[in-house]
Amino acid sequence: MPDDDVELVRELRSGDESALGKLFSAYRPRLLRMVNFRMDKRLKRRLDVDDILQETWMGIAQRLPHFLKQPEAASCYVWMRLVTAQVMMDIYRRHLGTKARDAGRDFSLDQFQNRQATSESIANFFVARNTSPTQAAARTEATEQIRQVVAEMDPTDQEVLALRHFEELSNSEVAQVLEISTTAASTRYIRALKKLQEVMQRHPDLA
């Protein structure tokens, strides 16, 4: 966590509630990435991402006492991300009329994206965009191979990849989100990345 954020969290825990707004502004770009990646396509046709973050801000302000009760080592960003997930779940229920389980800390890819969409997103992320016909054909083949590898992964391993590469969380933040140890988060990430690298090694021109 940047020194400025550490100081703001310290001020917040000391009773300066104005620090909450500053922290939310600092984390806003990361929360935007999270919402854009997790948001159901049907909701994107109805709502703007800023609308979700505006509702998230109100939820964060209301739930501040919950954060202040957490241990000092708890990440303020991970907490704000959790509130964002809960707000998205509420919005999902309101607009799509679907019974969805509580976001909680087991907020997963499947709640706002299906597995196929997730595997395709990760595959496209890891395959460079090239324009020649030969490279385009190789890219399509590599993308499909990676998509299949990701689709067959353990759901938690998929989530680790998504959190690290799409939401750009640190290893310790991933561990907090998934409620696993940092060692387990690192091991799962390395294992998943190795599987993807094995595919990429068969397509060196696309690396």
Q: Could you characterize what this model shows?
A:
- With 207 residues, the chain is an all-alpha fold.
- It has 2 domains: 3-105, Orthogonal Bundle (Rna Polymerase Sigma Factor, Chain: A); 114-206, Orthogonal Bundle (Arc Repressor Mutant, subunit A).
- The chain contains 10 helices and no strands.
- Helix 1 (3-13) crosses helix 2 (18-38) and helix 6 (115-126) crosses helix 8.
- The chain is globular, with a radius of gyration of 19 Å.
Order of helices and strands: HHHHHHHHHH
Number of strands: 0
In what range is the share of β-strand residues? under 5%
Query: Low-confidence spans: pLDDT under 50, at least 5 residues?
Result: 100-114
CATH fold descriptor of the largest domain: Rna Polymerase Sigma Factor, Chain: A
Tally of discrete structural domains: 2
CATH class of the largest domain: Mainly Alpha
Summarize this structure as a short list of keywords or feature phrases.
Arc Repressor Mutant, subunit A, 207 residues, 0% strand, Rna Polymerase Sigma Factor, Chain: A, 2 domains, 71% helix, mainly alpha
Quickly describe the structure.
With 207 residues, this protein is mainly α.
